[in-house]
Amino acid sequence: MTPDISAALNKSHLLWSAASPLKNYCHWRIGGPADYLVEPRSVCETALARRIALDAGIPYLVIGHGSNMLFDDAGYRGMVIRLGGKFAHAYFENNRVYAEAGTWTPALARACASRGLSGLEHAVGIPGNFGGLVFMNGGSMRQNIGDVTAYVDFLDENNEPRRLSAENCEFTYRHSVFQGHNDWIVTGAELRLTQSDADTIRRAMLDVMQERKGKFPLELPNCGSVFSNDADLYAKYGPPGMVIDRAGLKGTRLGGVCVSERHANFIVNTGGATSADVFGLIRIVRHEILERTGFTLKCEVRYAAPDGRCDRLDLFL
């Protein structure tokens, strides 16, 4: 820790802690300590936290619920800015809803259902925060959050608040313009939903949850789908999970991680897993699939290196 940074954080009245174990802030339950962890309560506090990091010359990383993240065993030598439950308000007006980045996605989906607003049924089982969902253009059942987004608010590289219409967000499968701008921070977005019957929406959500419960290994720590769909691979061999399954890789273990027996596109923490274990098992799977199909699997999961870099995990292999 640097005394000057600690003093600046104390003076700012931000909520922060030192040497926070990052395994407590991701679904894989893997990761060493961050030098500083800040939990902003507003757009202004988010900008202030980043300004303190920039002025101090240390790396910063913005996260949500950590559902799609792998942190390193060595932790993070900088500031982690977590947009979570303290920055999680949602505002409703007719068929429009505005949600802040820290909003828990399943809770938002259920709140929309209670008001008879349809369009987020597919997201009720996605275990992540709203800002990350927008950043990744996440979704399920061949639907994406970009399908119902009107605009996205963010802080730009100069820490100024800006707004982009959905047309300018470059939403495609698991992609948005924000992934190409590591210095932009999604702070909220407005959705335009469809008025429908609340009971019908709830039944659809129950169906989604039942399907997820039967299909995915929810009982062990994991990051969701590890590998992203590829149109050419899908057309020739099928989705990644099916390809990995047919390669006989279900149940493959390395250290504390294992390719799930229930769904082969999930890697689960069976106890005491390390980031090195995850890297090693992903290498094994990618090598085997390349040998069998000629396709190189890309990762959905993002990796935060101790030195401040953060990107798709496969880009670090």
State the main characteristics.
alpha+beta; Uridine Diphospho-n-acetylenolpyruvylglucosamine Reductase, domain 2; Uridine Diphospho-n-acetylenolpyruvylglucosamine Reductase, domain 3; Uridine Diphospho-n-acetylenolpyruvylglucosamine Reductase, domain 1; five-stranded antiparallel sheet
Structure description:
The two termini are 30 Å apart. Strand 14 (257-259) and strand 15 form a beta hairpin. Helix 1 runs antiparallel to helix 2 (43-56). The chain folds into three domains: 3-82, Uridine Diphospho-n-acetylenolpyruvylglucosamine Reductase, domain 2 (2-Layer Sandwich); 90-196, 2-Layer Sandwich (Uridine Diphospho-n-acetylenolpyruvylglucosamine Reductase, domain 3); 231-316, Alpha-Beta Complex (Uridine Diphospho-n-acetylenolpyruvylglucosamine Reductase, domain 1). It is an alpha+beta fold. The protein has helices at residues 3-12, 43-56, 105-114, 130-136, 198-215, 231-236, 240-246, 275-293, and strands at 16-21, 33-38, 60-63, 69-71, 76-82, 90-93, 96-100, 117-118, 149-155, 161-165, 185-192, 194-195, 253-254, 257-259, 267-269, 302-304, 310-312. The model has no long low-confidence stretch (mean pLDDT 95). The strands form five sheets. It has a five-stranded antiparallel beta sheet, with helices on one face. Strands 1-2-5-3 form a four-stranded mixed beta sheet, with helices on one face. Strands 4-16-17 form a three-stranded mixed beta sheet, with no helix packed on it.
